[in-house]
Specification:
The protein is mainly alpha-helical. The protein is 78% helix and 0% strand.
């Protein structure tokens, strides 16, 4: 019963912080989340909400620290961490391309070991594999390893031709390379 009350309380806090953030009251939202974390220090959802707020505000290192904290807690609680590594890789893209690639490679290693069970379905694993490939492609593109990034983006788009992150990432890379017509064709899929 106390676990249910704790979950209900954290959901209310997250909803309140989202409402505040939507009204550009980021500092108030952060304060509410930090206070809640004092009471529920191992609540992964609260930590990730704080990471999202940090991202919105451009506080990359704070976002990275929060995601790393969530990974540590998920490991302690024997929860799935691959999606957290994907998120961490995306956060590192704003500050350290090489670290983003290292983290994406770690996510790739983790997703290869996954198999369907009570906690995660085969479809969820397939989606995670696509997200990992996108993270790898983004990092490689940032490091100007365009051929490898292209291969990864094309593999993802072959499996899911309308996956927004892949379309945006590949389109952006094509624009960087001056291949505007190809980029426009990709962006048209977003309509």
């Amino acid at each position: 019963f106390t676990i249910i009350k704790s979950v209900q309380k954290s959901i209310k806090i997250i909803i309140l912080s989202l409402c505040l953030a939507q009204h550009y009251k980021h500092e108030q939202a952060q304060n509410i989340l930090r206070e809640a974390l004092k009471k529920y220090p191992k609540n992964q959802e609260l930590i990730l909400q704080l990471a999202s707020l940090a991202s919105i505000q451009g506080h990359t290192m704070q976002e990275i620290n929060m995601i790393q904290k969530a990974i540590k807690i998920a490991k302690e609680q024997d929860k799935q961490i691959t999606s957290l590594y994907v998120r961490l890789s995306n956060a590192y893209l704003h500050s350290d391309d090489k670290k983003a690639l290292q983290v994406a490679i770690k996510a790739q290693e983790l997703v290869k070991k996954m198999s369907p069970n009570d906690d995660i379905s085969d479809d969820e694993i397939k989606q995670l594999k696509l997200q990992v490939k996108i993270s790898l492609a983004q990092a490689k593109s940032q490091l100007q390893e365009f051929d490898e990034a292209k291969t990864l983006y094309e593999e993802v788009l072959e499996e899911n031709p309308y996956l927004v992150n892949a379309l945006q990432g590949y389109g952006s890379q094509l624009m960087q390379l001056g291949r505007m017509d190809e980029a426009v064709k990709l962006y048209e899929r977003l309509k």
